């Protein structure tokens, strides 16, 4: 680890308070690269923001984030701004590790802003998602092609992103994404686009009210209306994944918002407003 780098461990645990009939934050251990906003209760869910006080991660930085929801806890977490991985020298990198556990009949929406890898940066992001009982989750993960306004499209060195999804203790999905622009593994995913924003939305629920055909039809209509590319895959037993590609940040944000609404409608759940935080 570099002499000036920061290693942080952050832990959040939530439980359902029967007497208060609301979710409570019962364990909080934060600092360094991760702070937490004051929670907002909207009558059905606790909403919070995870904040990086250093405005990004630098060479040698590492953050281990653990989020745990006990049975019936209802939580939504976002971030106020993009996660920036700043310029690094050759052989330097930064790492973000996330461990998320959702208990029986608990619900988590984890929707941070996109990752923006700057020129020369090398990033490793690892996520383990554990879902138990009748738990539900929306897990959003997005990466920009770099600082487009600074002419840094695909100027980063590497971006390695991995996720393992467990349901009831069994591994249901494992994905590995490695982007190295100089090696040609990224480039232009769509030939006539100058840039490409990429996002994945993992959804698990045993209570969806929509079929794969219905969701796919809505996704296709959204794509036709806004542009970009998006699709849905039903992985079975309540687990699904959405893919999104967009040529610019405006279309990306509109598609993301549209997909979020489609998911909440399919779950017949109340869609919270993050702007209230």
TrEMBL record:
Cross-referenced Pfam families: UreD
UniProt keyword annotation of Cell inner membrane present: no
GO cellular component terms given for this protein: cytoplasm
UniProt keyword annotations, A-Z: Chaperone, Cytoplasm, Nickel insertion
Superkingdom of origin: Bacteria
Family annotation (InterPro entries): UreD (IPR002669)
Protein task: Required for maturation of urease via the functional incorporation of the urease nickel metallocenter.
Similarity comment: family membership: Belongs to the UreD family.
UniProt-recorded name of the protein: Urease accessory protein UreD
Source organism: Rubritalea profundi
